[in-house]
Amino acid sequence: MTERIKIIFDGKTFEFPLLIGTEGEKAIDIKALRSKTGLITLDPGYGNTGSCTSDITFMDGEKGILRYRGIPVEQLAEHSSFRETAFLLINGELPTENQLKRFSVMLNDHSLIHEDMQFFFQNLPRASHPMGILSSMVTALKSFYPELPDMEKDVDTTVTRLLSKIRTLAAMSYKISRGHKVVYPRPDLPYCANFLNMMFDSPVKPYKIDEDVVKALNIFWILHADHEQNCSTSAVRLVGSGKVNLYAAISAGIAALWGPLHGGANQAVIEMLEKLATQGADIKNLIERAKDKNDPFRLMGFGHRVYKTYDPRAKIMKATCDKLLAKFNISDPLLDLAKALEEAALTDDYFISHNLYPNVDFYSGIVLRAIGIPTNMFTVMFAIGRLPGWISQWKESMEESQWKLGRPRQIYTGLMKRDFVPIEKRS
Ligand code: SDX
What we know:
Elements: E1 4-9, E2 12-20, E3 26-28, H1 33-37, E4 57-60, E5 65-68, E6 71-72, H2 73-79, H3 82-91, H4 97-109, H5 117-123, H6 130-144, H7 151-177, H8 191-200, H9 211-223, H10 231-240, H11 246-257, H12 265-278, H13 283-291, H14 312-327, H15 333-346, H16 349-353, H17 360-371, H18 378-398
Antiparallel strand pairs: 1-2, 2-3, 4-5, 5-6
The structure holds s-citryldethia Coenzyme A.
S-citryldethia Coenzyme A binds at residues 227, 230, 261-263, 265, 290, 298-306, 354, 356, 359-361.
């Protein structure tokens, strides 16, 4: 017997089903609210509003839990690869050996991009932000790879093609931005190593693939692979709900991720730490500014809409930082600053009372710096990691049972009806 929620309005009692998720999360099912009561709900930023039911990712913000298809992200970071985790998110199960082999062959077969796409890169201003380039190039993929005839049958080809080409597009954009020769994908290299080679190999200095760096990149992308209904994933679902092609929906997700409050925070964290380092590290002043309501400054990489405790991804990212820097005997002053900033914030009453902890972006930039990724590509790295999540969420939203055109309502607070005034009578 489904539990029901009663709403009393206008002297009448209305009942709505109570939906209970696998992990005990509860929601009032208000699909019939307006038709039954004439009422809608209002929830700017959707902090209290569920847009869908989903089988993909579970987060518990109070306990700092994150699981992909039921598997804790800690176990995937330790034992899995990004390729395997992408397969898990998109298909619902970890791949068998044969499935992984077939997936890897498909990723390799689709790793090149149409040569004509290079003309796009060459004609964009050199200072273009890599996220703007990536978003445009992913949309352009539709022109070069028109939808396969049978979306149902061919969805695996379409999504695998995109998973593979996004790496090539990102690395190509980097090489061309530096006026360097483009490095093509290699059939003998797995996903992450192939990307690193495309980014850093050069005729004068062949790139030496280091297994610890490859492992760190796998962990980085596993940690970013999905995060239920965040801003960019909601953009992908909303744009996809109009039944536009996958590339356009993903391009919308890339654009949404670019913002400094969302995926752009990893670049903003490093810029904040670099400023601290060059202007003299006045950590106390930074903490006070972050608390000052009259100061628009926010401590980047801190706080989260869902996590009200330490972001489980930040813990793993911090450990990966330590391991990678120790391996190359790098002492990055920004890491020391980040740790000092974290310590100051976590012992400050304001941050404690507001449940503000480091999120995934706080340490991720330091891992990327150690790998050699330029700061303006940090959010591109987030986008490549999040792509399997966006694809899995898009696929789920397009399933018959889930598909519905996204169209929120509003409460109008503007002027009442009034007549047009000819220009000669306007004051
Ligand atoms: C990502 O949603 C996801 O899952 C996103 C993500 C993913 O994987 O997809 O996890 C990736 O986007 C991580 C977040 C990266 N962004 C940043 O690090 C930017 C800095 N963080 C903040 O801007 C903020 O914490 C948000 C935007 C992340 C979340 O903000 P909310 O949930 O909208 O909360 P809010 O802005 O209403 O803040 C609540 C209170 C406010 O104080 P009061 O007015 O209640 O007194 O907390 C304060 C805020 O001023 N606050 C901060 C703060 N974050 C929140 N104060 C100082 N510094 C901060 N970073």
